[in-house]
Amino acid sequence: MAHELPLTTAHQPPSASRRRQRGVTLFAVPALVWYLFFLAGPLLAMFVISGMSWPGMLAPRSWAGWGNFDTVLHDDLFWHAVRNSVIQLVIVLPIMILCAFMTGYYLTLRPRGHHLLRIVLFTPALISASAKAMLGYGVFAPNGLLNGLLGNLGLDSLARPWLADQGTALACVMGIDLWSGIGFTAVLFAARLGSVPQEIYEAAELDGCGHWRRMWRIAFPVVKDYVGVTTMLQFLWILFASAQNVLLLTQGGPGDATTNLSFLVYNKAFVQSDLGYSQAAGVLLFLVGLLGMLGIRRALRQSY
Asked: What is the CA radius of gyration of the chain?
């Protein structure tokens, strides 16, 4: 009949959009399972182990409650590691982001050989941690490149065992962090700045804007939202992953001069076999990272 009422929604077949939604959800299930098993699971295990007295993988364990946290918070080594991590973040992070942005802007100007320069800048991200450590050792060793250069310049009095000197060891580790991070981040900034039409730069140049004003008045607002992302990424890398350079180059020494929080967690777990202490420090490190991420997000007022 011409005036038949339409079928109710309950009897209608599922729409195409609903079927697509179900398909997308189905494809997300493997990633969700992976996340829960390999990320949420270890994170939960870290909190559980932090409350145990566990002197080794094969050793018997018992419940210690808050005892591990009390031990960590009253340990001078822990606070020394906190100090070194803070120094790394305060010095490395601003220098890395600033230099990476300026280098990325330079790449967008397409100077001669800019394709080769992109490859050179991205190379540290492609080589392994052990290879980067070997290059760093070749520079800072007593008979390495830096002391050899100082000798050729007649500055032998400045030569020293850089990695074995308590006054310079942490600075050497931070130098390697900067070398490996600036180029990679600069290429990311350059890719983002590539969306700016060259005509905008040319128009600004005709109006009398120099490179400095074009960089900060035109290029920077374009990537301002991206600065928060890269700052978070590098913050997490410095805080959690910089232990690899410490492990390969100085083993936390000389003394405790290069022991940071991430290396302390590793050293307590795998060298001293104090799993409870290690995971208690790991929980505190996790909380520092979480608070740092929230602070960066709030400071840069991002919407992501």
From this structure: 26
